[in-house]
Write a structure and sequence with these properties.
alpha+beta
Length: about 200
C-alpha cells in the first residue's frame, strides 16, 4: 500500500551528535529528578515515623516517671509513719492501754500507745463497717471531759492503725475510748461507745 511505502520513502538521517548528547542528558536528568523525588518522599515518611515513635516514647516515659514519683512519695510516707511510730514506742514516757469491745462490737479490741512527748499510736481490730455518713472518733478520757484525738476509718476487714498528735491536755488521760460519730467528728462524744479502756 502507498501508506506503507511512505514510511520507507523518506531518506534516513543521522542526527548531529550534539542532539544525541542533549537527549541523553535530558533523559538522565529526568531519571535523577525522579529518584530524588522518591528519596525525598521516603525521607519525609521516615521522619514522620520517627516523630511518632519519639512522641509515643515521651508519653510513655512521662507516665513511668509519674508512677515512680508516686512510688517514692508512698515510700516516704510509709517511712515517716514508721519513724513516728518507733518514736512513740521507744519513748520513755510510753503508756500502753488496752481497749475492750463494748456492746455494739463485743468482739472488737484495740490498743492505745501514748506518749505525751511523742504522740499516740492507736490500733484496733474487728470494728464493724461504718454506716454512711459516720466515722469512728478516738477520745482521750480525762478527769474533766473527753478530748478528741481524731477520727479514723477502719479497713474493710475491721482493722485500723493510725498516729495522732497529742492535744493540749490539762491532766494525763485516765483512759481512751472510740465512739461512732457524724462524719468529720464532733467536739464531744454523742454516739455509741465501741471501744473503751482505762489505765
Amino acid at each position: 500500500m502507498v501508506a506503507d511505502r511512505l514510511a520507507y520513502a523518506a531518506p534516513s538521517v543521522t542526527p548531529p551528535s550534539r542532539v544525541r548528547v542533549r537527549l541523553l542528558s535530558s533523559l538522565s536528568k529526568s531519571a535523577s529528578e525522579s529518584r530524588a523525588g522518591s528519596w525525598g518522599w521516603m525521607a519525609a515518611a521516615a521522619m514522620l515515623i520517627v516523630s511518632l515513635g519519639l512522641g509515643w516514647y515521651a508519653v510513655s516515659l512521662r507516665d513511668r516517671i509519674r508512677a515512680l514519683e508516686q512510688q517514692v512519695a508512698d515510700a516516704l510516707r510509709t517511712t515517716e509513719a514508721a519513724r513516728v511510730r518507733l518514736a512513740v514506742l521507744t519513748a520513755p514516757d510510753l503508756t500502753d492501754v488496752a481497749l475492750a469491745g463494748q456492746a455494739p462490737a463485743p468482739r472488737a479490741s484495740g490498743r492505745a500507745l501514748w506518749s505525751r512527748s511523742q504522740g499516740l499510736v492507736f490500733a484496733a481490730s474487728a470494728l464493724p463497717p461504718l454506716p454512711a455518713g459516720r466515722t469512728y472518733q478516738l477520745w482521750y478520757l480525762t478527769a474533766n471531759a473527753p478530748v478528741s484525738a481524731g477520727v479514723f476509718e477502719p479497713e474493710p476487714d475491721g482493722r485500723a492503725i493510725g498516729f495522732f498528735a497529742t492535744p493540749e491536755l490539762a491532766t494525763a488521760p485516765t483512759g481512751f475510748a472510740v465512739s461512732l460519730e457524724p462524719e468529720g467528728g464532733v467536739p464531744a462524744p454523742t454516739g455509741a461507745i465501741y471501744l473503751a479502756g482505762q489505765q
